[in-house]
Amino acid sequence: MIILGIPLHQWWNKFFFRLNNHTFQAVVVMVESGEIQPDENHIAQLPPPYEYLSRCGGEIMIDQSNGITRVFFYTYRDMFDDFAGYLYRSDFNPPQKNDFEERTNRLRSWSWFEQLRPYWYFCTNV
Q: pTM score > 0.70 for this model?
């Protein structure tokens, strides 16, 4: 469905982020404080009150390397490891080609991204 030239899923993703912005930020604070820790595959399970923020079973990807914190909340993920969602980067830079490279086991770049607010992007590699 398209509303005023904007696909409904794009409108919904922006609306959902705006509606829950403070809650997304609270999760980032938990990651940066060590309250939420990733496993060896850079995946972490959100606490039950926050699971709805990542639509793939409440899982998020976390990468804290080179002094940069990256947290990815899924809106979509398929069995071929293609995904879309909200990305937080603590360094204020846009998404980079090697974000979560270790998690996906292949070098790939984001096929599309849009800044939602400072530090936050909606990204897809589909």
A: yes
